[in-house]
């Protein structure tokens, strides 16, 4: 099992993931800026309740050329359109974690496709973690979102895993 | 290994003269004189502007004084996380030799355009993320992860205090090929074309298929497409000879974030 993925593997698995999402009537989208590496990414948006406010969160799964793994980027806006800064994002998702971990976990960086500020979870150990979880035939993007998503209130329904397994069984019979 | 010390020195000592102006709308009362400063090309705006901020604070409305400072050149907000030399070269102010006039703002931070690195702590975390990414490209991340926190601190302090020896004592380890290799796995490089601050990143090996070291002419061929041809590269304000080897460039001409930042000149074919 390889611990990283090429751009073409990312693209094909992103499309596989998107197919499961549409089967489940979930609202993931594949955004293509142009045909170049890494300018296609998966996007999902939801509202997250924080105290008395609804926060609009947009999640992007983007391919990292350097790390050769998927990376999770997100942007959170208040209902008045204001962008949450790094402290506010931390309070929204990880208020129970020690504050000293903030800079080890979350960084505001430029989105590698859109070149706008997004928060990102550090990718350092993604390869390692994916290789521990991923089975040969499993969709690595699905695995990636299932592992990293819960840190930022991005939870996939269990049906994703079930449909993915069904697809695999079907492919094996073919 | 990065052994051409004179080159490293020259790159380190590159400076730009900047003329900082106030934002007229933030000024209360008398309009302040501009503030002139020579800054290192390798540094970042938030690291060199403590004095500038202090100077202008006296002239601006109290409610803006604690705001996150940012800068613009002719209406273009300047990325706080790009080395100053990269910003300057991308925006190519027409007359070299005269100070670069930019405006400092204390209010209305452009949240949707600029990564908000208004404290040294945030900039340091961003800088370390860049170093790690570069080391993943060069050595699969093995060198940086074997370093200790104090080494990371030494790099950062060397950079912010403009201490060449302190910085290079650690950086040389990042600039050596790993164990018995003769070159890096890939060259950390960002290619800029327009002045809109977008760049292209690719996996660029320092060696060709036969194991020979690639030079800039090879890189031009690699970046060219049927419709446009790469014809030249610039960095640190200088044009680069096409026989320059990529491995040598990476070791000697990278910015402190360990990336080469190259402006590419294209010609339509």
From TrEMBL, chain A:
InterPro entries in the cross-refs: Atg3/Atg10 (IPR007135)
**Family matches, as Gene3D superfamilies:** 3.30.1460.50
Molecular function GO labels: Atg12 conjugating enzyme activity
Q: Which GO terms describe its cellular component?
A: cytosol
For the keyword NADP, the answer is no
- Provide the alphabetized UniProt keywords: Autophagy, Transferase, Ubl conjugation pathway
> What Pfam families has UniProt attached to this entry?
Autophagy_act_C
Q: Which GO terms describe its biological process?
A: autophagosome assembly; autophagy of mitochondrion; protein modification by small protein conjugation
Q: Which domain of life is it from?
A: Eukaryota
Q: Which family does it belong to?
A: Belongs to the ATG10 family.
Q: What is this protein called?
A: Ubiquitin-like-conjugating enzyme ATG10
Per the UniProt record, the source organism is Drosophila hydei
Q: What is the lineage of its organism?
A: Eukaryota, Metazoa, Ecdysozoa, Arthropoda, Hexapoda
Gene name? LOC111599910
TrEMBL record, chain B:
Q: Which residues form the Autophagy protein ATG5 alpha-helical bundle region domain?
A: 121-176
A Pfam family matched in the record: ATG5_UblB
Ranges for the Autophagy protein ATG5 UblB domain? 186-264
Q: Where is the Autophagy protein ATG5 UblA domain?
A: 11-106
Q: What is an annotated GO biological process for this record, any one? A: piecemeal microautophagy of the nucleus
Q: Which family does it belong to?
A: Belongs to the ATG5 family.
Function, as annotated, reads: Involved in autophagic vesicle formation.
Tell me where it resides.
Answer: Cytoplasm; Preautophagosomal structure membrane
Molecular function GO terms recorded: Atg8-family ligase activity
Quaternary state and partners of this protein?
Conjugated with ATG12.
Q: What name has this protein been given in UniProt?
A: Autophagy protein 5
User: What keywords are annotated for this sequence in UniProt?
Assistant: Autophagy, Cytoplasm, Isopeptide bond, Membrane, Ubl conjugation
- Write the lineage as a comma-separated list: Eukaryota, Metazoa, Ecdysozoa, Arthropoda, Hexapoda
Q: Which gene encodes it?
A: LOC111602861
What GO CC annotations are associated with the protein? Atg12-Atg5-Atg16 complex; autophagosome; mitochondria-associated endoplasmic reticulum membrane contact site; phagophore; phagophore assembly site membrane
Q: What is this entry's stated membrane topology?
A: Peripheral membrane protein
């Amino acid at each position: 099992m390889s611990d990283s993925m090429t751009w073409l593997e990312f693209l094909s698995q992103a499309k596989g993931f998107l197919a499961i999402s549409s089967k489940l009537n979930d609202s993931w989208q594949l955004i293509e800026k142009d045909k170049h590496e890494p300018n296609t990414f998966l996007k999902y948006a939801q509202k997250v309740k924080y105290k008395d406010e609804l926060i609009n969160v947009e999640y992007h799964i983007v391919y990292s050329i350097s790390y050769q793994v998927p990376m999770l980027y997100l942007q959170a806006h208040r209902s008045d359109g204001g962008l949450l800064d790094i402290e506010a994002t931390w309070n929204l998702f990880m208020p129970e974690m020690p504050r000293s971990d903030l800079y080890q976990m979350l960084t505001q960086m430029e989105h590698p496709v859109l070149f706008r500020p997004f928060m990102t979870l550090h990718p350092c150990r993604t390869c390692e973690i994916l290789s521990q979880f991923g089975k040969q035939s499993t969709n690595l993007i699905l695995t990636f979102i299932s592992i990293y998503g819960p840190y930022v209130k991005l939870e996939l329904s269990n049906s994703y895993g079930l449909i993915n397994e069904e697809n695999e069984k079907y492919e094996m019979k073919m | 290994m990065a052994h051409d010390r004179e080159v490293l020195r020259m790159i380190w000592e590159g400076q730009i003269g900047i003329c900082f102006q106030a934002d007229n709308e933030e000024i209360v009362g008398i309009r302040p004189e501009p503030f002139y400063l020579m800054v290192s090309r390798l540094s970042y705006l938030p690291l060199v502007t403590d004095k500038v901020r202090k100077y202008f604070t006296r002239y601006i409305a109290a409610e803006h004084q604690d705001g996150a400072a940012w800068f613009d050149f002719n209406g273009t907000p300047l990325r706080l996380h790009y080395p100053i030399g990269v910003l300057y070269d991308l925006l190519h102010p027409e007359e070299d030799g005269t100070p670069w006039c930019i405006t400092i703002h204390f209010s209305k931070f452009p949240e949707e355009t600029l990564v908000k690195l208004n404290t040294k702590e945030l900039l340091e975390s961003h800088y370390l993320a860049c170093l790690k990414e570069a080391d993943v490209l060069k050595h699969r991340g093995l060198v940086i992860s074997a370093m200790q926190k104090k080494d990371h601190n030494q790099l950062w302090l060397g950079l912010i205090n403009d201490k060449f020896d302190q910085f290079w004592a650690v950086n040389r380890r990042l600039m050596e090929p790993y164990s018995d290799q003769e070159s890096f796995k890939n060259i950390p490089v960002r290619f800029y074309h327009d002045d809109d601050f977008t760049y292209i990143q690719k996996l660029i090996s320092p060696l060709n298929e036969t194991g020979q070291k690639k030079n800039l002419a090879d890189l031009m061929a690699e970046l060219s497409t049927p419709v446009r041809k790469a014809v030249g590269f610039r960095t640190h304000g200088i044009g680069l000879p096409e026989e320059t080897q990529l491995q040598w460039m990476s070791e000697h001409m990278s910015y402190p974030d360990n990336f080469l930042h190259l402006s590419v000149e294209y010609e339509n074919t």
